[in-house]
């Protein structure tokens, strides 16, 4: 078969078709293979991006790449193919051209173009090609430029992810790049506060700790000093990333010297001083939480300071700032997992009274339900005296919500049921009706915990789940019919035969969705008639009869 018979042009021509429809990389690759199959006697031209213009590459790496990672992956495969098929000089020329195209994107102010270039770099890091040293050097320079010049958080987060990937790939030049990036990040944290640079710095340090721990470990003393200052950053988004970096560092040093735990704990005390600002208190509490969270060495260190930590929690339990109170709430489950006897004897009553009081405040109850559920796992049967009050709060929280109950409440029910077992049966049985207001993964997880811990409830839950699953699917289908664009289809007869039956469904939500769906389909039929240009009288007559039948069955 000749190529002309299919109307296909050679791939080299396809790549320069800037005036025509842009072809995605994977489509171009498939096209190229088809070209070779149907035209085997023709010498396959160089397939590289010598002829792949900037406009097409930009389209492949930005708009589409954000939706489908396959485009970047195909770019990696394409490069590997070129490495196998081209001579050394030709491949070097090919890669120079590709790098040139990719590195034009950082000059753009379009976020999508920067993200696209980063995606391409991520895939090309793993591409198996001979000129790996040159590749790493070029990509390192690009990522450096991204951190130094870009301010968009999405770009910085993605750049840090790819920096971690580059560090993980190893090699001498990679170690040098890790060393450089760590030093730059520490300088940014120690220098004048510039928000986007602080943000970038903690992202870099986190990824270096996770992916290049040997090199990072040399800088732990400097990191500890710098990160403790960063913990008091007034910007919440920066504080959040600082905590992640601290967590990564603790994983690096957890089996090494514990002197850094002392240094960190002392710094948290400094941040909790009498006149400390809110962001300093918040950051210090986050650091305490990480020290409590980490593995055995850290926990053993914190055991000797348990009373100090508990006193910190009690001191800020009723703090005027909501952010501080939320931080304290997140610490409650962690201190409850420490010496069981000490917590139950000295702190259980005051902590539970606080939680039960705050559960009455709608804007803060979600975090308290999370804490309560997590504490239940550590306290075994110690919550038995609080079950009536807890169940009352759970019932009020579920019933007061319009539509579905909050996910935090559902998770709390499951965790307490798992902890208390059959003791919780009468309380859970009274909550089931409210819990089944909508299907969610959190509900399913809670029900699994309940059925494992309270076997007598298994048949009831099984039946309710089957009923709910059927209703949920029907409601989804009805909403789809009502809202999706079915232009060109007359669905009136379908509505009469398949939708109206749900107007008498036992489930009230299903009946409502069926009614709205019927009304929408009838309204759409009027709209279709007004826009038609062919035989209006005949169409009006036929559609009018169908509408009449639908309306009759809806209302009569």
Name some characteristics of this structure.
556 residues; 31 helices; mainly alpha
Q: Mind explaining what this structure looks like?
A:
This protein starts with a helix and ends with a helix. By secondary structure, the chain is mostly helical. The protein has 31 helices and no strands. Helix content is 72%, strand content 0%.
Give the arrangement of secondary structure elements.
Layout: H1 3-6, H2 11-14, H3 25-38, H4 54-61, H5 70-85, H6 88-102, H7 111-125, H8 132-149, H9 153-168, H10 172-190, H11 195-211, H12 213-217, H13 220-230, H14 236-253, H15 259-271, H16 278-293, H17 296-303, H18 306-315, H19 322-336, H20 340-346, H21 348-358, H22 365-379, H23 387-399, H24 407-420, H25 425-429, H26 432-435, H27 441-453, H28 458-483, H29 492-499, H30 508-531, H31 536-555
Helix pairs in contact: 5-6, 5-7, 7-8, 7-9, 8-9, 8-10, 9-11, 10-11, 11-14, 13-14, 13-15, 14-16, 15-16, 16-19, 18-19, 19-22, 21-22, 22-24, 24-27, 28-30, 29-30, 29-31, 30-31
Low-confidence stretches: 1-72, 531-543
Number of H/I helices: 31
Number of E-state strands: 0
* Global geometry: flat
Whole-angstrom Rg: 31 Å
**Main sheet, how many strands, which sense, barrel?**
none
Terminal CA distance = 66 Å
Structural class, by secondary structure, is mainly alpha
How much of the sequence lies in strands comes to under 5%
């Amino acid at each position: 078969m000749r190529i002309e018979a299919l109307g296909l042009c050679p791939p080299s021509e396809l790549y320069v078709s800037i005036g025509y429809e842009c072809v995605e990389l994977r489509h171009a690759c498939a096209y190229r293979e088809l070209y070779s199959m149907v035209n085997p006697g023709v010498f396959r031209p160089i397939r590289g991006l010598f002829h792949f213009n900037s406009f097409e590459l930009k389209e492949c790496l930005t708009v589409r790449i954000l939706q489908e990672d396959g485009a970047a992956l195909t770019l990696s495969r394409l490069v590997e193919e070129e490495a196998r098929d081209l001579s050394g000089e030709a491949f070097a020329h090919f890669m120079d051209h590709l790098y040139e195209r990719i590195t034009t994107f950082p000059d753009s102010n379009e976020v999508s173009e920067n993200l696209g270039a980063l995606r391409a770099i991520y895939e090309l890091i793993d591409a198996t090609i001979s000129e790996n040293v040159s590749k790493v050097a070029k990509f390192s320079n690009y990522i450096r430029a991204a951190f130094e010049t870009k301010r968009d958080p999405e770009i910085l987060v993605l750049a840090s992810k790819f920096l971690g990937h580059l560090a993980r790939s190893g090699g001498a030049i990679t170690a040098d790049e890790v060393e450089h990036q760590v030093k730059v990040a520490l300088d940014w944290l120690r220098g004048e506060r510039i928000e986007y640079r602080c943000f970038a710095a903690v992202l870099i340090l986190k990824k270096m700790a996770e992916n290049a721990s040997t090199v990072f470990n040399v800088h732990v003393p400097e990191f500890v000093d710098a990160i403790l200052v960063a913990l008091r950053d007034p910007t919440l988004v920066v504080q959040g990333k600082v905590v992640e970096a601290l967590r990564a560092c603790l994983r690096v040093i957890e089996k090494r010297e514990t002197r850094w735990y002392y240094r960190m704990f002392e710094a948290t005390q400094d941040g909790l001083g009498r006149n400390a600002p809110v962001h300093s208190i918040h950051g210090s509490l986050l650091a305490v939480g990480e020290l409590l969270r980490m593995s055995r060495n850290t926990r053993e260190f914190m055991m000797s300071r348990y009373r100090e930590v508990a006193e910190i929690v009690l001191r800020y339990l009723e703090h005027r700032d909501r952010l501080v109170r939320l931080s304290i709430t997140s610490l409650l489950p962690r201190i409850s997992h420490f010496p069981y006897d000490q917590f139950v004897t000295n702190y259980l009553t005051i902590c539970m009274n606080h939680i039960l009081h705050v559960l009455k405040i709608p804007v803060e109850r979600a975090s308290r339900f999370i804490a309560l559920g997590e504490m239940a796992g550590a306290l075994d049967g110690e919550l038995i005296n609080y079950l009536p009050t807890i169940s009352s709060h759970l019932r009020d929280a579920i019933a007061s919500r319009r539509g579905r109950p909050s996910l935090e409440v559902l998770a709390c029910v499951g965790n307490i049921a798992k902890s208390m077992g059959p003791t919780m049966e009468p309380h859970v049985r009274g909550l089931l009706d409210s819990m089944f207001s909508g299907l969610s993964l959190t509900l399913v997880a809670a029900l699994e915990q309940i059925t494992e811990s309270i076997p007598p409830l298994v048949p009831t839950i099984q039946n309710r789940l089957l009923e709910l699953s059927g209703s949920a699917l029907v409601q989804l289908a009805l909403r789809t019919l009502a809202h999706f664009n079915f232009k060109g289809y007359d669905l009136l007869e379908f509505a009469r035969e398949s939708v109206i039956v749900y107007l008498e469904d036992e489930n009230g939500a299903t009946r409502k969705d069926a009614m709205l769906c019927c009304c929408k389909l009838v309204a759409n039929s009027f709209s279709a008639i007004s826009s038609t240009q062919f035989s209006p009288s005949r169409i009006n007559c036929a559609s009018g009869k169908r509408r009449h039948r639908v309306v009759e069955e809806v209302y009569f």
